[in-house]
Amino acid sequence: MRIAAESLDFAYPGGRPVFRGLAWTIEPGDLWFLVGPSGSGKTTWLRLCLGLVRPTGGRLTVDGLDMGNARGPELYRLRRKTGVVFQELRLFLHQTAFDNVAVSLRLLGRSGPEVRSRTLEALAAVGLAGFEERPVSTLSYGQQQRVAFARAWVRRPRLLLADEPTGNLDAATAESVLDLVAAMREDGATVIVTTHDRRLLGRLGGKVLELPSSSPVGGDSPAGLPVR
Description:
By secondary structure, this protein is an alpha/beta fold.
């Protein structure tokens, strides 16, 4: 999935600009790490790509869709092709791991047998075989993180957006999460990962964009900084 920003501006109402004059292109199958301190715009970029907020100037296109003008049905179709893992995970804590993952396929209208087989496959892929009937509230944070990745992966997304996916995880669990990111990319997904953990950089051979605490005007990246 291709993403292109052209002279993109964004500011929250009454707030300072987050992006000004952003020019940045993400090609299909790319893996990008967005690195920067809190307030640098990492999560805002993901929200823009989902249409949760809209540009205040310039243009952003995601898979050919102009995010400044996109409306309900168009955004719905885009989100059907997108897997998202937010920091807060947004799981249904009192439902089982199986139901948390299966909901993605049920919303797409998949058949019962397909939902079951693909959900079990996704949970096994994240190391949670045997945990299908466990309420998510009884799982550790690391296990809940894996459920969130299984929910994103089960749809075979063309775009994966992961917001600090290894935050608060031990080293072993973080490694397994990165393996999942790699697997999604190998499936052909475009992947954008935000992180403040510089140990991840280069782990998967992706590109790196560094954002400062505020983004000045212009440049080939939001910060006008070199991209590796």
